[in-house]
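fyi for ur records
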Amino acid sequence: MTNNLLKITFNVFEYSVEQLGEIIYQIFETFQVCETLKINKEKGKKFIQEIRKQYLTTIPYHNFYHAFEVFHSLSTFLYTSDQLKNNYTSEEKVALLIAALCHDLKHPGGSNQKEIEKGSDLALIYNDQSVIENYSISQTFLLMKSNEEANIFSEIEKEKQKKIRKWMIQLILATDPEFHREQLQKIRKNKSLSFEHESHRLQVGILILMSSDLGYFTRTMEIQAKWMKNVCEELGFEYSENNKSFVKNKILPMYQLLVKTVPETKPCFKLFQQNFKFKL
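which gave:
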């Protein structure tokens, strides 16, 4: 079943949010999330259900469909690459998967800059620093703290729990577009990148999540166009089908670095190469 689900041809728009929640649990089973966290399947399903409810349904882009798309892209990278499957620990895989699922939790729509410019409560609380990313992280952990039935970290050892939380914080903060270029430069400068070092694995994990956050560019042109229209509607941009310049300058360098770092992910970019005629 999972082999059929974790493909770049997957179309998120063909499913209801309830169906997507069920698929997330199937992917949890593939990566043994509940076993790693020492929880029963009911708690795993309850967590997914509660996370789904926290995503706003009134915004066109940063909603549960986007959360699923990012989660699915990251899961596909992990599933496709033996290098990733064999070198990340079980707890690190959990951190990557949960970070992908929750990275935009309760996203209010728009951008950090919009929050800062209007002096919103969120901007004041987080001192204009990665406002929405910080908010999503805190809401994820507050949800689990306030709802024991959905607290997937309740049974795992404290040290492992701390590590997963540390990874999730760093992963989600790295999705702030303001720091994308800085994150890519860090990885490029690391000439001795090795999966033997936890800090290096985290760096690669950040690259995987960043690439997954814009993973819809690996889909068919039809799916891609729908996502782009949703982005433009939410952010107030004028939609144009000619987005090749944006892809060349913003997306291509990220994908190229991921393929260079983890060559086994290259098949995931088959449609991207066909659509845009770029080499990876």
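The radius of gyration is 18 Å. thats all i got for now
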